[in-house]
Amino acid sequence: MDMYKKIEEMEAKRSKVELGGGELRIRSQHKRGKLTARERLDLLLDEGSFVELNAFVEHRATHFGMEHTEAPGEGVVTGYGKIHGRLVYVFAQDFTVFGGALGEMHASKIAKVMDLAAKNGAPIIGLNDSGGARIQEGVVSLDGYGHIFYRNSIYSGVIPQISVILGPCAGGAVYSPAITDFVFMVEDTSQMFITGPKVIEAVTKEKITAEELGGAKMHATTSGNVHFTAPTEAEVLEEVRRLCTYLPQSNRENPPRREWEEQGDDWVEALADKVPVEGTRVYDVREVIQAVVDQGDFMEVHRHFARNIVVGFGRIAGRTVGLVANQPKVMAGSLDIDSSDKLSRFIRFCDCFNIPLITFVDVTGFFPGVNQEHHGIIRHGAKILYAYSEATVPKITVILRKAFGGAYVALNSKAIGADLVYAWPCAEIAVMGAEGAANIIFQREIADSEQPEETRQRRIAEYREKFSNPYVAAAHGMVDDVIDPRATRQKLISALEMLEQKKESRPAKKHGNIPL
């Protein structure tokens, strides 16, 4: 037999693998409004850049009931390619083969490509579409999940890890995405849950649909398990590509920097009107962020979860930055349990991957209430203090308006490691607002006064002048400069340039013990 015959056999075998579960199952996948694994990779990666690995891997024929069962590619496509010209490693579960169920060799393929990503310092992106563990392989399939979970954990903070949920994700399968840095879901066609609706109904008698239990909307708004959603697979994958433009390849390098030319527009006149001086008036802090970042381009993370805090990525003078801001439109921008978790996780991601942090503060404090106390606001709020204190990346704070109580300290104050703290002229920095403080300190005087309201207003004004204006904090070195709001972008550009070579060490230790 000559070499050409061997090549023909190889190509025939490869074509069979590329067809996955066959035309009938591919049509079934399309009828559900879903793409195949290879179609998804075509959308995710730069055209023609995908290189497949381990295409001919097969399961062991000794597994129960699988002696004569074919599973082309073992139900998962693995390899590497490029996004905007930069290397990424990928795996895409193939629902047309065994419903994408994970078995021993399926897991082995994923583990191998994860190892390659870590060795070569590039992101790993997983496209998840699986019915869960392969029952026919018993405990071996569960062991396969363990190998993946281990790598998710060990490579956390080493390379960016992104999970895209493109179908069902149940049982143990949900824990790999949960460990990764960012999770994307498609609205109406993706679900994640530990136990499905039928099991829940059998055990607890509760009736619920799969979408209500673990759909994209629920996870984006209630559980906080998903960071980004979009209506279609194509839109989700385009958002993954967009996210990658902000991220470094690994923890060994800085984020990519875009070309930027000074255009004389760094003095932002509109910022003078974005934040009302009156502390009780609301505004959308996203408008402040968009006025500061390049071209107003802000990629918000966890947009629909814990909306009292805003986090996401942008660029300032071409540099990637992580942006954090209280949102006065929701709960007056106060911090609660969910926002504490959301914020702490984001801070730690940025610190892992050398992304400078900019914090815009307008906070009344931690949100009060019995429910918050009983569910551990102390522990959850402490995560913010820990995350900011632990972070060694450049950290800049801009106090827009209110900065009260422990929340002021927690939100990257000078005391817990901020490199630079700026304040706008209308900023109030104190234990509490002037109204509340005056009512407590001068309670008796106000009550005994012949004109109590006039006395109260006078004392409020005195307290604000003596204790809560930004110049008091500046006099103690807790604020580096009181700035014109319109100069905010200029100040941030200068600060980021100054801090570019920042190096900061921490005491030697195995790792800290964040209050999880």
TrEMBL record:
Pfam families: Carboxyl_trans (PF01039). Residues 263-509 form the CoA carboxyltransferase C-terminal domain. Transmembrane segments: none annotated. InterPro entries: AccD/PCCB (IPR051047), AcCoA_carboxyl_beta (IPR034733), ClpP/crotonase-like_dom_sf (IPR029045), COA_CT_C (IPR011763), COA_CT_N (IPR011762). Gene3D superfamilies: 2-enoyl-CoA Hydratase, Chain A, domain 1. Signal peptide: none annotated. This is Propionyl-CoA carboxylase beta chain. SUPFAM superfamilies: ClpP/crotonase (SSF52096). The lineage of its organism: Bacteria, Bacillati, Bacillota, Bacilli, Bacillales. It comes from the Bacteria. Residues 3-259 form the CoA carboxyltransferase N-terminal domain. It comes from Laceyella sediminis.
